[in-house]
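Supplementary Methods S3. Input chains for the assembly prediction are listed below.
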Amino acid sequence: MGKRVGMEVSIAAAEAVKQANVDVISAYPITPQTHIVEHLSELVANGEFDAEFFCVESEHSALSVCVGAAATGARTFTCTSSQGLALMSEITYIASGLRLPILMIISNRTLSAPLSIWNDHSDAMSIRDCGWIQFFVENGQEVYDHVFVGYRLGEDRNVLIPVIINMDGFILSHVIEPFELIEQEKIDQFLPPYQPLHQLHPDHPVTMGAFALPSIFAETKKAQEEAIRSSIPKILETWKAFGDMTGRYYHPIETYKAEDADTLLVTMGCFGETASVAVDKMREGGKSVGLVKIRLWRPFPFDAFKQAVVKAKQLVVIDRAISVGACGPVAAEVKAALYGKDQRPLIYNFVAGISGRDVTPSDFIKMVDKAEIEIEEGNKEGYEIYGVRG
Amino acid sequence: MTENLNVFAVRTLTQKEYFAPGHRSCQGCAEALAVRLVAKALGRNVIIANATGCMEIVSSPLPFTSWRVPWFHVAFENTAAVASGIESALKVLMRKGRIPHKKIVTLAMAGDGGTADIGLQALSGALERGHNFVYICTDNEAYMNTGIQRSSSTPFGASTTTSPAGKVQMGQITWKKNMPAIAAAHNIPYVATACPSYPIDLVQKVKKAADIEGPAYVHILSVCPTGWRSAPELSIKLGRLAVETGVFPLYEVERGQYRLNIDFPKLKPFKDYIKLQGRFRHLTDGMIEEIEKRVHQEYEQLKEKAKKGV
Amino acid sequence: MTKPESEWTWKELPVGNVILEPGNASQYRTGDWKTLKPVLNKELCIHCGLCYIFCPDMAYSLSAEGYFIADLYYCKGCGICAKECPTGAISMVLEEEEK
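Predicted structure tokens for the full assembly:
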């Protein structure tokens, strides 16, 4: 059993980066990620953490530094939110195309305009297609844990894909939560030093980042697509190894009282914990309702998801972002996952909690009630932004 | 012609080629020559971060590479940032004992677009942070790889596809951005200008830049026959004329002290330089006179700085 | 020998599309591009090496005899060597069509 402490989630995340023996950290400050970089710079300045840490002149450069360092064989880390993520988005696609293991924590925050520092998933959704492995976590412990999971997974020779941990900004980043810290010896065993497959070094000169003509490009993308799809067994394996070490087992899709439920809430991120309180309340009232939580966003766990909702009659999918002009992105994914099935639940899509607006258990109850009424009245294409005045 | 024994100095350079033939640059490309000489200057123990641009494209069409040293292309505007990453990784990996201690030069190479325009921010950041690396800008004075569009490094009056010589505007309407001065303003230990028409000078400067602790910036004029509309065989002569007319003086700035490498008792007429280039053929005599005046003015200012620096 | 890009299968690609063989571009015949080729008049040559150092395509190398000889496999016929030769020992001559 590790040490159990109360700590701000951002601080715990920084501690995890230190415990993971990261080599190069490069970041640019942006609310609500700042506490992570501030604590990291303190650790380095006090000599508690031997790493090359520097605040660069933009997020685009922050990720570019990580790319250069990872290609040279270093374990790297960066973190950002919102506009910063949007600025470095060009490089996210490049990092995954180059198959460089980098870990990035995104303290999820709304994308401008209007400018807002508060939490939603629009930033994560803007790089949905970037090719990284993407996790959404629900609480502080999960942030801390996934730093180690992320490095071991990303650096695995059969994976070599960069990893994102999405944690809801402010709601997670700035709150004090209970943590069970892991002993350093256990982490060192779980996470050996990074051994790159290809490395920039004069002893074995390689060329990285060549350009590709149309006649070969499709093959490069097929190789990349196959790599991320076939990483799912490795993800499960890494989670199992982590669970064996700590007793905390993670899964791509997690359920709460969902086995026999007619109605299932589908959430991602810290909505999950609030929704589970709502589920308990609704069940007390006799409703047949449960919760499905998506932890692995990319590669999307189609099989696990289909399995989790196999008995449900309707799904109430709660998005925390809008694909403006279309729908909620998670709902779109869910619909795509289920389209091929002969028996499909009906789906109602809410977008809630935009830019940090609080979503309480009673909000979830209201959403489920509304969805059920709408579906009963024949509305099979339900999509609305919850709680908008006017 | 044979009175000048300096021609034989070429034989003192290493015969090893770290930039392989078979690259796809145009005929007579002085940028490829610049890169070849830089590679000779630095040898095996180098890691190169290269921007998107002519040299990147001609040297790395998957699955072929012209590079015999480690080489990395990421994007257009972040070369200095990628180099910062490489440099710090080497530092920390050697410190932690994961790779053996060895002198490995980190080189960032980019064109004028990737340096003076889109890459300026990353360059400024890397220079300010003081990474131990060499930044080389190979300047062919436009976005040549995408079809000869103007950059802030395009000289005044030059015709490019986005600053064409038209009826109302006659080519580039702004003066060439002074990148070496911008680099020097960051108070870095070494800044230099070079030209492949002076190969020994170029190689010596690149070696000096590599030996210096801290950031070093070398700005290399790269004649581009395709973009400058000049005959391919004139690329070396044009580079020489750029220096001899004062358009591209060869100088160094070492810890703030300016030093002019070649001073001419009388600069050659500007006309001699531009008459061999189609990109200037629309210039009126009046414009030529104006440009020459300013070139001479800036040359004098440079000489003043150098005088103070001695 | 590296095969051309149009023949690679996706499984053959190294991870991250890294190119593992340094300088393998040297199997590409840029010499096909030229119209003019350099011809050396050995009597005028002073072995200075300017043709060699100014060639953007690294086409020149030192022969056992001590002359710098252009490898026509790479030479693009730009004419820099002829222009820069201090004794005029190199002339650019129209390359005959291969019959």
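Residues 50-54 of chain C form the longest helix (5 residues). The two ends of chain C are 27 Å apart (CA to CA).
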